[in-house]
Design brief:
Layout (H helix, E strand, L loop, with lengths): L10 E4 L2 H8 L8 E8 L6 E4 L6 E8 L2 E5 L2 E5 L3 E5 L5 E5 L6 E8 L3 H13 L9 H15 L4 H19 L1 H4 L1 H6 L3 H11 L7 H8 L3 H12 L3 H19 L4 H7 L5 H12 L3 H13 L1
């Protein structure tokens, strides 16, 4: 049985073709924009099947109930606080569990960068990494997207929603960064290591020092940290040191070798090289450039 007449309390907005053409004609907003957006509460008998996919990407966020998704001849069970992403051109079918119908926020999006974003989210989903912490802030972002489009398709409304869409999709791609209160309560080993390095940026911490702090082996945690952040532990620690160095160069009168020493780097040559390699400019030139801006 498939519902055709809609669901009580449902909302949706489909942007007109001429409006979409105007958005795509904008160099600023053509990279990412909404084509269709909606909300289905307790959508009993909800079902969609698209054998050749669509020419846009689709995001579905389940906040209650259950559903299912079929892609590549495999059925995935969808639970509360999980998302579905369907990149353009992928055959799919999805629907609700009639015994426990899902409540979903959903949107379709396009743009020159939409495929890259959808593919990244799709990879997370295929790795079963599509559970996100519930956040009222995420729901508020959706409502802000919807409410602006509901007020019409003026340049400000559509432009603002196109830029806000980046933030909304980022909450799914980088949920660990978005759910700040939960991150504080549920700090994992990577976050503990980063906090430890930040609090001890003035020390000479070794790889072993950091791994001892999080109670994990150096071989295991080194790989885990790099997979999570894209950098090795020592690279990340050096980034934090140089970030502090920039602050000292801008807002203190300390000599360059003194700044290095305050950050646990006693060799001035090594400090200058480390700074130059990361910032693309020497510490002395960085300070001079900052002073020129302040005095101009």
């Amino acid at each position: 049985m498939k519902k055709k007449d809609g669901f009580q309390g449902e909302r949706s907005i489909q942007l007109p073709k001429k409006v979409l053409e105007k958005i795509y004609g904008s160099k600023i907003y053509q990279s990412l924009y909404i084509t269709y957006i909606g909300y289905y509460p307790k959508a009993q008998f909800h079902f969609r099947e698209r054998k050749i996919g669509t020419n846009e990407s689709i995001l579905i966020y389940c906040v209650n109930g259950e559903g299912w998704l079929k892609i590549e001849n495999k059925v995935h069970h969808i639970n509360i606080n999980q998302f579905i992403i369907l990149p353009e051109g992928i055959s799919h079918a999805y629907g609700t569990n009639p015994e426990n119908p899902w409540t979903i926020y959903w949107l379709h999006f396009k743009g020159t960068e939409s495929k890259a974003i959808a593919d990244a989210l799709f990879e997370k989903m295929l790795m079963n990494d599509h559970l996100v912490h519930f956040s009222q802030n995420r729901v508020n972002l959706f409502e802000e997207l919807y409410n602006n489009l509901e007020r019409g398709y003026g340049k400000s409304n559509t432009g603002y929603t196109s830029m806000l869409l980046w933030h909304f999709l980022a909450t799914f791609l980088h949920d660990d960064c978005f759910s700040e209160p939960l991150r504080i309560l549920e700090k994992n080993s990577v976050e503990k290591a980063i906090e430890y390095m930040r609090n001890n940026v003035h020390l000479k911490l070794s790889l072993n020092d950091i791994c001892i702090h999080v109670c994990l082996s150096t071989s295991y945690f080194s790989l885990l940290f790099k997979n999570k952040t894209g950098y090795s532990l020592i690279e990340y620690f050096n980034h934090l040191k140089i970030q502090s160095a920039c602050q000292y160069l801008q807002f203190s009168k300390l000599r360059i070798n003194e700044i290095g020493s305050k950050l646990g780097i006693d060799d001035p040559y090594y400090f200058s090289k480390l700074f130059s390699d990361l910032m693309g400019i020497s510490p002395r030139a960085y300070r001079q450039n900052f002073m020129k801006v302040v005095q101009s």
